[in-house]
Amino acid sequence: MENEPEGKRLKKSTLVKLGLGLVLLGAVGLLVLQGVDLKALMDQALELVRTAGPVAFFVGMAVVPAFGFPLSPFTLSAGSVFVPTLGWPTVLIALWVALAVNVTITYCLSRWIARPLLEKVVTRFGYKWPQVPAEAAWRFTILLRVTPGPPFVVQSALLGLAEVPFRIYLIGSVIIAGFYGTAFAVFGEALLSGQGRMILIGVGAMAGLSVGAQLLRKHLVKKKLAEAVHGV
Predict the structure, then answer these.
(1) Is 82 a member of any domain?
(2) pLDDT at 109
């Protein structure tokens, strides 16, 4: 598996995502056929979020995904629920701060709680727990963050377990996740409010980020291979 071609791995990842998407669409279609009012359910869920208030929402966004809950429900609903009362600048600042707190929590749990315990287990079997070299920390952080597939919390945990310096981890994670979160917030707000132009802007932003991330990922992989060939 380690020697599996990059293109083949990406193809498998795409097929898995397509399969999950089809399952989700099938589930939604089944609910519609059974007469379930999905819009009413969505409105109720958003009203609950709105009632809880922005402080509870963004504190929840900072804490809950650090323990495995998906981040996307927060980023997709933040704009739609709170932009009408708080405005975009406040919502985006709160979103980025919540992301910073979130990745900090996960780093602390993985780096200073999980890693020492795992190191003890690994050491007993005569192995050494891997650590990312200092000169590769930036590249490893960016490469992992732009790699499709692993959930956000898993990416954070892996970076913490690998002992990536916290400064590099925090800056790289917040910048990349912040841009994705902003695009999701714009798209979610436009979708739920029915703004066609903003939907296109949100979709375009997400598509642009996805393409840019893949180009950056390919560049970093090629650079790593080139360094390996030249013995760097």
Answers:
(1) yes
(2) 95
